[in-house]
Every structure is written in structure tokens, then in C-alpha cells.
Amino acid sequence: MKHIAYLCLSKGWGGLEMNQLRNAKAMQDRGHRVMIIGQKDSPIMQNASKLSIPYYIVQKKTGHYQWAFAWKISKALIKNGFDHLIFRNNREMSMAASIAFFSFRKIRVHYFMEMALGGTRTQWFRTLRYCFFTSWVCPLPYLVQQVKENARVASSKIKEIPSGIEYDQSTEVEKLTARKALQWPLNAKLLVVVGRIDPKKRQDFVWDMFSQRPANNEYLIFVGASTADEPNDFEKELQLKISAHPKAKQVIWAGFKEEVDEIYAAADLVIMAAAFETFGMTTLEALRAKCPVVGANNGGTAELINLYNGGCLFDYRSKPSLNAAINRIFTEEFQTVKSEQIKQHFNFNSVCLRIENEVLQ
Questions:
Q1: 196 with 227: CB under 8 angstroms?
Q2: Across the beta sheet with 108-112, what order do the strands follow?
Q3: Which of 263, 192, 205, 270 is nearest to 234 (CA)?
Q4: Cβ distance 157 to 135 under 8 Å?
Q5: For residue range 9-52, what is the model confidence (pLDDT) as tens digits?
Q6: Which of 306, 246, 233, 298 lies closest to 272, judged by CA?
Q7: In 167-204, which positions are buried (b, 16+ CB within 10 angstroms) versus exposed (e)?
Q8: How far apart are CA 78 and CA 92, in angstroms?
Q9: Among 170-174, 249-253, 318-322, where is mean pLDDT lowest?
């Protein structure tokens, strides 16, 4: 049995935070002792409580160099017998490295990369920080290459292990049943955008394209919400812009929803329009559900579709390209998803086994 703490100081609730919690739950179910470190009233702490996962509440401090804060966390972890720390947010790199430092490396720190490097990261202070990481885990091949080319990290520390997804034995949700449950149109084409409402996710780009499509039997559905405790000006401005357009009646703001199986069953396709999606958990979930994905031609979404099929890529700079990719989905001009390969590679059992053997050892 391993003793693993999961650091997550964010108050958001997106793929990164969900993956931390999913992995913690999966490892707990396998008999390991786990704990979530997070802020009071944050979504991850609320959900950890619901899942009966132990947690340790901290008050996040501002600034990059938070040595006193890191020292306090390292002492608490050692006192409670935790010797592994997993984090996913690159904003927590300094904190994680400091925890390893103050514990005299008794706490082994593992970075599960779900945010792109964003350029060269070879500065001396970054290299020093990376030295305190026991392992650097990348979920896709292109991220391994990105780290090797843009950061000074020992090759022995770099692992390629995917983010896991759950496979249960429940019956697949039928499309009509899902649409009735969600109260979505029953006899229309549903174009669904899943993810937080944010300029980086480019819901405005998708709307500008959709507003030019002539079909009256298509609906654009936004599933998601703005990040908690952050300004939601982007969402308000987009809603105002759409409401003034004749096609406003063909747009549905569904808000955040937990029922992901129903969402993918109800959708005719999912659009992933972010200019750069590091991993693309939504893409992976949609492919698992055999829901076609229209994705930007870079980042994790492009990697997943290139490896496992199941959708069409478009030039992320071009609305006509997005429009054409949607049409290809509707005319079934794309390759069928490799469902069995996805299941073998991404199911939590194999992912957790690899984490145990390649990271926690």
C-alpha cells in the first residue's frame, strides 16, 4: 500500500481537477491510502467529501515563492505518513518542488502533465525546480517530445502514461432517452460544445461559424459554466451577442452537467475548438461513447483523433474549415473510432497498474 497525497489548490472544476479526483478515487479503491490537499469550499474538496476521500484543507497564498506555506504542507504530510505527492497544475510546480525540498526528498513529487509547456522552459531556475520532481508523467506521445525538446528533465524521469477513464458494465444510453432526460430537442441535429465557458475554449468562434449555417433543424448546445470565483464577462457578452441574432432560438445554454454519458449519447457530434487542448479529456470521453468529435488540428484532441479515429479535424484558425468538418461528420466521411484500443490503453485498471509500477516504485 502506498501513501499518496494529491495537491490541487485550484477552485475550478475542469478536466484537470476532475482527473486528480478520479485518480485519487481509483487508487483508493485499489487499497492505497490517499488524501486530497485543497482549499476550503473548492469543488474538488466538496466532491472528495462525497466520495469519502480524506482531505487536508489549506488556505492558498499568493505569489510564486511560498516557502512557509510549502514547509507547513511538507511537515503535515510527513506527520501523517504520506511519502508521495501528485500534482497536475503547472502553477503548483514551485510549491511541489518546495515541498520536496523541505521534506529532504522524503516526499517524492510526481508531476502529471495536463498543461502544455507553452514554449522553452530551460531557464536555470526552472531546471532547478524540475530536479526536485521524482517523475514527470505525460499522457500523450507528443507531450513527451515537447518536454524533451523544451525542458531540461532527466530522460529517466519522463514517463508516458495516459489519464485514465472509467469503464463500467452499465448499458449504453439510447439517444432518444438521453435527449428526453436532458430536455433537449428530440428530432434535430445537436452540435454540442463541452467545457468551461472561457475565451480559450472559443465558444465565440463556434458561434460565429454556427450563425452562418442555414439549417433550421440544428441546435448549438453549450455544456459548461464559467470558472467559479472568476469574472464571467466572456459568457455574458457571448449570451448578449447571441440573443440579438435570429438564430438565438437554436442555441441552448445547458450549464454544467454531471451526466456525461447522457450528453454524449444525446449529441450528434462534439466540437472541441480550443486553439490548443493539452490533453482533451472531453475528446476521450466522447470517443469512448462513440460520439463523433470535430476537433482543432493541434494539441491533444488532434493526437487522440489521429491515433484512434472517431472524428474530423479542422484548421483551428478557419471557421469554413470547422463548418466543412461538421458536414463531413453528418455525411459519415470519417473513420470509425478504435473503441477496443481506447479501452485497453485508457481504462483505469491498466493506468493505475502502470502508475504503481512505473511511478510509485
A1: yes
A2: 55-58, 33-39, 3-7, 84-87, 108-112, 133-138, 158-160
A3: 205
A4: yes
A5: 988 888 889 999 999 999 999 999 999 999 998 999 999 999 99
A6: 298
A7: eeeeeebebeebbeebebbeeebbbbbbbbbbeebbbb
A8: 19
A9: 170-174
